[in-house]
Each structure stands twice: as structure tokens, then as C-alpha cells.
Amino acid sequence: MSRIAYVNGRYLPFRDAKVHVEDRGYQFADGVYEVCEVRGGKLIDQRRHLQRLVRSLGELRIRMPMPLAALGIVMREVVSRNRIGYGLVYVQVTRGVARRDHAFPTPEVAPSLVVTARSLNQSRNEALAAKGIAVVSVPDNRWGRVDIKTIGLLPNVLARQAAIERGARDAWFVDKDGRVTEGASTNAWIATPDGKVVTRAPDQAILQGITRSVLFEAIKAQGLAVEERPFTLKEAYAAREAFVTAATQIVLPVVRIDGHMIGDGKPGPIASALRRAFHRYAEAG
Ligand code: PDD
Fold first, then answer.
1. 250-261, pLDDT tens digit by residue?
2. Which residue has a Cα nearest atom 5 of ligand 1?
């Protein structure tokens, strides 16, 4: 079965799913995106992801390509046309197509909208979570507004590639004060030796992950103490546990950071329990 993508008003087979060479997403990374988990054919936390999309668009003064409710229906339709049981749905909105000029087009052009979906291998993801992952640290050389979920991801791409070349799975960005900001496509967490869960507060130096927000409810329900504050790499090396969160990975235990073994080198009980509990707090629709 050919994959189907939604491109500017039409559902198309992948081979015909194309955008213009002068789309500002292609030329300038002038656009934003969202990724939602699909589980049991349902979209997880779609409402919150769409809220964040609206915020990202607003920060960049890009128009909504269609009313929110209609976009929700398109996402659902793409999931259903591609028969996704477990996987992800991807939404990208750019400022549209115009002759290449850095300033916003005048007159304004219609924003471009692309929605795709694909299956993920659930047993492979579960096996990864059961084993835990290694991460390496890299300097955070991104721009000052990574709270906006833009498609400008070159530092993230290079960080992930550096991780893979160093035998790890994810990279943790570290700011100039030696404090971890977040992963290349995840939020970063530790559990301290006395069992407190720590993650950076949602300032402009991290993306405020939807998984991160929902996980706070799970953490509170489990009676765990949580602190929203920056932590250093040194603190992370000495942590009892570490993990990352993102829409398609939920809670993924980290067992090694820059070659330092975390805890006993196996996924810890806090990360594992939070992973199991997560979907009780997420919305499925
Ligand atoms: N990434 N931080 C960054 C830099 C991210 O790219 C992501 C998500 C997150 C976690 O956000 P959420 O919990 O809302 O997925 C944090 C997506 C999945 C991606 O780029 O594929």
C-alpha cells in the first residue's frame, strides 16, 4: 500500500506529494511542526500538540493554514488512510511559497500545510526502553528561541549524528554554564540520589514538551518529589537515574552519559514506572 500524504488541500500518494522549490520552509526553514504519537489508532494528546502549534505559529506570525478543528480532522484522516495502529503523525506549516527574499512576502501568501503519518515498530521501542540508551553531551549552539518548534533543526541533526558516531543514541545539549538544556529531540531528566525528579524549567532554552507536561501529572500521582531547575552534567553523571521524554518515545531510560554509567547501568524503577503510567494521564482521541 502506498503511503498517503496531505499536501495543501489534497490527499496524495507519496510519489506525488510535493512542495514548491520556493517554499519558504525549503529556502529558509521558515516554518513549524508537530509530532503526535498514534497508539491503538488514536492520536495521543492531539489537543495539546495543536495548542502548541498555534503558539509556535503565533510567535512567528504565520497564519493558521485552516481552522484548528479542520486540521484535527485532516490529521485523523491521514492516520486512517495510512492504517496506522502504532506510529506517529507529522504536521508541518510553513510561511508559504514566494520569490526568495528574507523578509515576509508582501502581499501575504497562503501558508503551506503538509501532514504525513507512519508506523513505528512497537516491540523495537519496548526493547530499547527495556535496555536503556546511551547519550553524549554536546555544546548547545542553537538560537535563543528553541521554545518555538521550528523546522530549523540543523544543530539537532548534527548533535544526533555526533551521538551516533560516538556509539550513543541521543545527544544532550549543554549551555555555556555547563547545565543541560535538553536532548536533540527530547527533554532531559534525572532522578537525584535522594529520589527527586529534576528537569529544566520551561524557559526559552528548551522546547516545552507535551510529554514533559503530561508526565508531571504521573509524577505527582506517584507521590514523587519534582524540581524544575537546571542541572549540570556533573550532577547527571552522579544521578540515580536519567531519562528522556518525547512524543514517540514516552519515557526512555538513559543508562550511560558520556561513558559514565548511571545507577547500576540498567533502567531504574522511577523511569520504568513513569513509562508504564504515562498513558493513564495522556488524552487519547
Ligand atoms: N521532538 N525537545 C526537542 C528539541 C524536541 O524536538 C522534542 C520533540 C521534545 C519533546 O517534545 P514532545 O514531548 O512534545 O514530543 C523536546 C519531536 C518528537 C521530533 O522532532 O521528532
1. 999 999 999 999
2. 185
